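Cast an eye over this sequence plus tokens and walk me through the fold:

***
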Amino acid sequence: MLKLKSKAAYIAAGLIFLQQTFAFAAPTELSLQDSINYTLKNNPSIQIADQDKKKSELSVNETKAGNMPTLSLGSGYSKSNSTSDKWNNDLRMSWQLYNGGRTEAQISQAKLGVRTADLNVEKTKQQLTLDATTNYYGVLEAQNMLTVNQESVSNLQAHLNIVQAKYQEGMVAKSELLRAEVEVANANQNLIKAQNQYDLAVSSLLTTMHMDSGTELKLNGALTYQPDTRTLEQAIQYAKQNRPEALQAKVSVDSAQKGIEIAESGKRPSVSLSASTGWNDSVLPGNDNSWSVGASANWDIFDAGVTKSRVSQAETSLAKANLQVEQTWDSIDQDVRQSYLNMKEAEKRLTSTDVTVNKANEDLYIAQESYKAGVGTNLDVFDSQLALTQAKTNHVQALYDYNVNKAKLDKAMGISAGSL
């Protein structure tokens, strides 16, 4: 009985130790680059893009097989009441030596497919980098807004304490006390909303990084302002030369040109080589088996316009691909301009919000001191606190918008994920 109690005590102690260990486990510390690295490593989107690339690479091997000989083995068995058992066996080799350049063009087209898939991997990396960056900054924004609302509650609570003291001394009416209590309650409502926004922002970041939803995070970064010296013209030119979508559009043109070559191969002759051997009445060949070797050529002199139609379709595909290049460039140009102009707008807002926050802080201090001295009103304090909260909110929002649009500009330009 004592042994059982002793074991139970050990188990209980072990459970308490585990609970304390998990309860006080350190949160996962993340820099911006850490969040990007986790996303590029764990997010399923990059794994899907990699699988598509592997599939394209395998299709090249499949297409190359068209230039190689094929070997087939056939075997048959028959039995009837008039003859004895009979075995028929044959081994055939076929090799298409020339088919008008169709196989070579198909191989080139398959290789261009690999290039497209490779660019799609890079495009996925750039999008995931933007997603991780945006969500990382989203957590920082929500964290800053939580601080702003906590400060608002603290300031209004401090003012409420003053109002309560004055009310107890009979210096103010009850309506002033009630109004101060309402303001604190409203501020607490905003604080609850801010906490929820923070929790949602953390959840979005964890989802992007494909991490467990219960993971506790501690971000090492901060929303800061670092000037961007790039011009709009530089950004647009860089994007046209490096954006994966622009490069993919050019590859589509090359692939369409190969499509014309494939269609035109129907105008040319094809040449093939064949060899065969056969034997009867045995599973394995003997010394008396027959064999043959031959070469053949085929040229469709008239195919009722099928080849001409295929060439016309391929030329239409090429014209379409060229138009899509122009369409892609227009889209990239707009994407770059939008990100650049939004970044510059946020930059201008930052300049004014810095000054506004300082003035709003001073205004609140004056209103608080005036109320303490009996020469100010409740409304003065509330208006000043509201103006300060709005000024800080505007500043946080401008910082967030600047940094996010800067990241969007990087993505719009096609800056490689590894070079950020």
Q: What stands out?
A: The first helix runs from residue 2 to 23.
